[in-house]
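Per-record layout

source: Oceanobacillus arenosus
name: Tetratricopeptide repeat protein
length: 333
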Amino acid sequence: MTQVKNKAKEKSNNVIPFIPEGDFYFTKGVEAFQNRKFNIAIKWMKKAIEAKPNDPLYQCQMSVIYTEIGAYHAANQLLTNVLQSTEYTDCYYLIANNYAHLGLLNDAEKYVSLYLEKEPKGEFSEDALALLDLIDIVDVDDEDDDFELEDEDELLIYQETAFYHMENMEWEKALPVIEEMVTLFPEYMLAKHDYSQVLFFLGREEEAVQMELDILKQNPNTLYSHINLALFYHELNDEAAYKMHIHTLLNVYPMHEQQKLRIAVTLARTEQYQDAYQRFISLSKGRLKNHPSYYRWYSITAFNVGEPAKALSLWEEGCKQHPSLSKEAGPWE
């Protein structure tokens, strides 16, 4: 993202008699971003984009901010919009980087290869080659990410909608969205794992468990099946089955923040607080601020390991970032 940042600095360092409205907003947004005031940066950058909706640099800089706070799908939606109207090749690398963070390595490889094909000596070429090397050496736990997006725009909308409802534990609202996503994108395995979790919390426990067992039978190393089954069996008080799956998770240390968070949350939800706490403290908060589950379960974990002050601080920060959390009972409940 060096090029985007460098161009941003060039704009912010220009001294001219009159600053067009869009450039003024852009400059303020970049300043806020550099000071890590991401919420303010987003507000300024939105104004800049409204003033100059066809400037690809503005949208790319907004995507960089979204990436920094962990809103990878939103970042890719912006970058995809840019590519529909202009051949701004930096977008390919930025999209690849976001997919890598999401653990969607197939798609990351696809876009990083496109970037190198179009810009073999581009600003991001060294980073792109390093990302390709990383993808080659990563031992992927499962085939959940082995999915090529054909209708990427449509899938991103479904992903974001389902993500919002699940993060806020709005299971009834999440169900029709995920059902439709599974129907339209049957090869997208992550949606099936989300579907089974929604089914479980809507009271269709037997169906949810069997769904994950069927997936696990086809691929015994499916990380998300172990995550869901550990949670399901804990809720069903099946201690023996629970221990088998939680033992698997305790020995897995993914490289992607999304997968790390899922394991940490599962450990917290199954009352493995000491192990959960170690996982939470290793997470990058800057990349997970858009996840209410991060604040909800980290604060609960902190409270249960004897850190009430930290629990309160996390809960207050979470409620500020996500007002919907304030409607829930705090970690002390």
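summary: Residues 152-167 form the longest helix (16 residues). The two ends are 43 Å apart (CA to CA).
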